[in-house]
Amino acid sequence: MPGKCYERCRIQDSYDIAHESVHEYTGVNPDQKGVELRKIIVSAAKNKWIKRKMGPKDGCCMSADQICYVWALKEIIPAQVIAINVVTDTVHIKDFQLRDVIIKTWNDSNLIEWREVICESDPDYNLIIRRIQDALNQRGYDTSSPNYGFDNNSKNALYNFQRENSLPLGHLDLETLAALDIF
Questions:
Q1: Would the N or C end of the chain have less CB density within 10 A of its end CB?
Q2: What are phi and psi of 175, to 5 degrees?
Q3: Residue ranges per domain, the chain?
Q4: What share of the chain is helix, strand, coil (3-state, %, to 5)?
Q5: Tens digit of pLDDT at every position of the chain (183 positions)
Q6: Which burial class, exposed, middle or buried, applies to 158 when counting CB atoms under 10 A from its CB (0-12, 13-18, 19+)?
């Protein structure tokens, strides 16, 4: 679109939350009929695709120099599992309480989307950068930029703000500016 700038922004992963109600056994004999030990995944494992170097020891590299790269799925956050004694026969067993269990399921988006951003050619670009830095500093994200240039300190502060607020990462997109009350 004329007069507007767009960049490819990484959209953060998110998770869905579900609730499950179980009849948790509260008695002293969990080994009886009508009570079972149930393992519930309260937070699924989070995985990430990484590029990994392979060599002759791995036995699958066919290149002449015997070094290959493969994509491998690596667990970066392990699943969290709880064990609960659950009453399956509430007619005969009365020693239970209703327990609400929260279950998180990761949505590994790893999406890259085109988002509208502030153009460097915008006549107010430097003023907008100063406003972004001031807004980040007011929120506790230290830009430490005495000359108000958009240097690595400012970029790190912006990235941390975006990460902690589930915003697209790494660019001066309009959604981030709105979250900083710039626009």
A1: N
A2: -65, -40
A3: 13-44+79-108, 45-76, 118-179
A4: 20, 40, 40
A5: 456 888 888 777 666 778 889 999 999 999 999 999 998 888 877 777 677 776 656 555 555 566 666 666 677 788 888 999 999 999 999 999 999 988 777 665 567 778 889 888 888 888 999 899 999 999 999 887 666 578 888 888 998 899 888 888 888 999 999 999 997
A6: buried
